[in-house]
Amino acid sequence: MEPKPEQSPHHAYPDHWEADVVLRDGGTARIRPITTDDAERLVSFYEQVSDESKYYRFFAPYPRLSDRDVHRFTHHDYVDRVGLAVTIGGEFIGTVRYDRIDDRGRPASAPADEAEVAFLVQDAHQGRGVASALLEHIAAVARERGIRRFAAEVLPANNKMIKVFRDAGYTQRRSFEDGSVHLTLDLEPTEESLAVQRGREQRAEARSVQRLLAPGSVAVIGAGRTPGGVGRTVLRNLLAAGYTGRAYAVNRAFDEGLATLDGVPAHRSLGEIDEQVDLAVIAVPAHQVPEAVADCGEHGVQGLVVVSAGYAERGADGRELQRELVRQARSYGMRIIGPNAFGIINTAENVRLNASLAPESPARGRIGLFTQSGAIGIALLSGLHRRGAGLSSFISAGNRADVSGNDFLQYSFEDPDTDVALLYLESLGNPRKFTRLARRTAAVKPVVVVKGARHSGTNPPGHAVPVSRIPDATVSALMRQAGVIRVDTVTEMVDAGILLAGQPLPSGPRVAILGNSESLGLLTYDACLAEGLRPRPPSDLTTAASPQDFRDALAEALADATCDAVIVTAIPWVGEDGEAETGDGQVLAAALHTAVAGGSAKPVAVVHVEIGGLAEALAAASSTAAPRQRPTTARTAPPEAPTDRTASTDREVPTDRTTATDREGATDRQAPTDRTTDTDCTTASAPAAPHPSAAPAAPEATPPAPEDRPRPGRIPAYPAAERAVRALAEAVKYAQWRRQAAVPGKVPELLDETIDEAGAAALIEAHLAAAPDPRGRQLGHDEARELLGRYGIDVRPTLPAPDPDAAVAAAARLGYPVALKTTAPHLRHRADLGGVRLDLTDEDALRRAYGDLTDLLGKPAELLPVVQAMAPRGVDTVVRASIDAAAGAVLSFGLAGAPSELLGDTAHRLVPGTDRDAAELIRSIRAAPVLFGWRGAAPVDTAALEELLLRLSRLVDDHPEVVSVALEPVVVAPQGLTALGAAVRLAPPPARNDLGPRRLPSY
C-alpha cells in the first residue's frame, strides 16, 4: 500500500506530482513525493543498492543510512527540499532529491533559484530509464517552485549518470573540479529537451504495446473445465492460431488432480507455474479480478488483457472499480488492455498470437487494427478476412482504461510489419497528443480513422476520458491537418485500408478508366468528378473485349505519363446464346496481374459487377504472382525523435456476454460468431510497386527500417464505382499531404519585427489582475484594439453614439463616409435586421439614418449605436481563435453571414500555424472562389488575409490566457483588409497535459 501522506508545516502534500510512467522496457512505475511514512521503504531500498552505486552517490563508502540520514531524506517542505521516489509494488526502486542552494552552495530559500540534485537507482533497475524519468519530473517540480538551474557533482567514473544529464537536452555547462564533474543544467525546456522527452515516450510506449503483442508465454486466468465460457474460448483460440510460446490454463476452481486442459498445463494459481509468465488474459467475474491481478503482479507478469465486464460501462460504481483496477495493475508495473476487451492478435510468424474472442485468426498481412468496440472489431476482422486482406496486429481495447489508440500509434509508427494503421475510436482521451502522434505516423504510413459517437456530445458508456466540446467538423479538419484519413464508416475504412496496404500512392489526381461497359465507365467518371479527381474520358473496350484486351489496355494506361491511377471496370461477358458468362473471372484476374507486373508504380482498382470467380481469383493470385522487393527506409531519425492518449470502449459485443460464472469461476460469456454485414469487396495479391510516399518523410519522422522482404501487393476489387473512387480519392489527398509535409511550412520572420510580445503580456496581466475571476473577463472594444495592436492587428475604431448629436460629433472626428450600427447583443452583426446603415456621406444622411434606426428597432439605450468610418469595399470574412482544454488552440476562418453560420462552411487549423496552414485555411472553404475573382469580380488581397491569420495564431500561441478572439467582420479588399469588430476574452489558461514530464493518463 502507498503511504498516507502527511502535511508539511511549509506546504501541503503535492498530490499532483504523483504520476504513472512507462519505462524504457515498456513496464510501468509510479513516481510520487517521499513522505515521512517512507522510512522503512527507504532503508530497505538502500540495502538493495550495490556498494559501487552507494559510492557514486556519496563519494565514499557508505554501507548504511543513519537515523539522521533517514530523517533528512524523508522530511521535506516540498518547496526548498523535495524528494521523489519511483515505486513498483509499493517498494522504492529509485529516488531523486533536490535542495535549494544560494550562489555559494549553502542551503537557501526563495528567491534563490538554484538547487543541488542527486539520484540513486537500484542496480537491478538501472538501464530501464528510471533516472531519466526522475529527471523530467524533478525538473518540472523545481520549475514550479521557482528553481531555474540544477547543480550536480558526479564522479568521473559514473558514466551512466553523466549520460543521463548529457542526453536530457537541457542547456548545460560542465567543468572538472576537485576530482569530480560539476554539471549545471538550465531547466527551461528547449526544443531539444522536448524532442528527447517525446522520443523516450515513443520508444517506451511502443515497447509496452510490443510486450503485450509478442509475449513468450500466456496464462488464461478463468479458463473453465467445460467448453463455452469466455476463458475457455480464449484458450481454444490461442491454441488454434498456433501460438509459438508457452500457454497455461489457470483457474482456482480446478481440481488438484487436473494436470492439463486442452493439452496445456493447468494450474490453480500463477504461483504453481515455475516459469515466467509474460501475459495474462483475465476472464473471471469483476469481483474476482483484483485477486487475479495481485497474483499476476506478485509473479512478475508483464501485461494484462482483461476481458471481464462490469466496469465503467455499468455506471459510477463501475468507473471506480475500473480506476482501482488500473491503479493496482500499474503499481506492479503492468499495462492493461481493457477491461471489457475483445482481445488482441499478432499474426507474426514467430508469434501467432490470438488472445481474443475471435473464432478465427486473420491471415498475416500489413494492416494494423485498433478498435474500441468489440462489435466493430468482429465486423472488421470478418470483413477484412472476406476481402482477402491480412492483419499484422489487432487490439480491441474495450473501456480503454489504460492502453489506448495513442499507444497503438506509437507502436505502429515503428512496427516494420505494419504499412497501414486503421483505428475505430469512440472518444479521444488526449486530442493534443493524438494529433501530434498521428501527424508523425502519417508522415511514414497511412492512418485511417473512423470516429464514433460524433454528435452525441458525450462519451459512450465505459469511457472515462474528458469530454471535448469541439464540434465534429472541427475535429475532422484537425485530423486532416495531421494527415489522418478520416472516413465516416467502417466499410469506407476497410475500402481505403486495402487500397493503401496493397497499392502505391498516386502521384496526382489524374485517373484513367477502362472497361467493357460504357455505362459503368460513365458512373465511375461521374464519381471521380464528385470526389475532386480528374478523370480521363472512359476507354470503352466494348462487351466483346477479351481478358487479353483488358491486359493490353491496362498496360497501356500504366505506361501513360498523363494518368496517375487506373480504375478497371468489368461486367460479365455475354455469350452467343445471350447468356451471361460468369466463369472467366480467373482468366481476367490473371490478365490484370500480368499487366500490373510489367507496369509502372500506379495504383489500380477494379470495379466489377457479378463476375463469378473474379474476386476469389484476385484474392488468390498472390501464389502465382512474382513479388517485388519491398523498399527499406534508412534509420535517419535522431536518437530522441519527437513523438500523445485516446479513448475507448469495448461495449457489450453482440453476443451473450453475461457476468454469471460457472463453477470453475470463469466468466460465462459465449464467444462471438464470425459475422459481418459487408462481404462484397475483395482484394487480390499481385506484384505491386513499392509503397512510396509522394515525397520522403522528414528525418525526425522516419521509423526503424523494415527488413527487406518480398511483399506481394493486392489489387482491391469493389462492387460499386463510388466505393472504389472514394478510396482512391482518399489516397490522392493523403499522397498530396505527404508531399507537402515533407517540406514543413514556416512563420515569416517579418512578423517578429511588428509584434510586441512583452507589451501584450503586460496588458493581459493587468486586465486579469483588475478583475480576478477564474472564469475570466471579456475585454471592451478599446481594450481589445490595444491588445490586438501589439501583434500588428489593426481594428477600426468605433465611437459611441447615444444620441444624434453624439453620432454627428463622432462622424466629424472619424471623417465621412461613415457607418452607423447597433452593438446590442441581439442585433450585433445582423445587417439583415436593419441594424447597420452604410455609406452615410454627410450629417443629414447620418441624422436620418439615426432616426430610422431608433424608430425601427428601439431606443438608443437598447441599441447601443456606434459610428465607424467606412472601410473599402471587399469580401466580408470571419476570423476566430479559441482554446479547447483538450485539443488546444484552434484557428478558424469563413465568409461572414450565411456561408459560415447557415451552411457551416468554416475551416479550422491547429495553432501554431505556418504560412502553409494559413494559405490552406482560406482555400479549404467551399466558398473560397469568392476570394479569387468569382464571376469576374476582382480578386481580394489573400496575402494580407494570410498575414492576419498568422498574427492571430502567434497571439494565442504566445499567450494562452487569450482563450477566444473573434474578428468579425474582416473586410478583405483588392488591396489590404480592415477588421471592423473584435471580441477578446481573457482567462487563466487551461492546464496543458502535453508539455510537462511524461505521464500516463489517470481518468
Describe this structure in words.
With 1003 residues, the protein is of the alpha/beta class. Helices cover 32% and strands 22% of the residues. The chain has 28 helices and 44 strands. The strands form eight sheets. The chain has an eight-stranded mixed β-sheet with strand order 1-2-3-4-5-6-8-7, with helices on both faces. A seven-stranded mixed β-sheet has the order 11-12-10-9-13-14-15, sandwiched between helices. β3 and β4 form a beta hairpin. α11 packs parallel to α12 (431-442), α14 crosses α19 (721-741) and α16 runs parallel beside α17 (585-598). The radius of gyration is 32 Å and the shape is flat. 50% of the residues are buried.
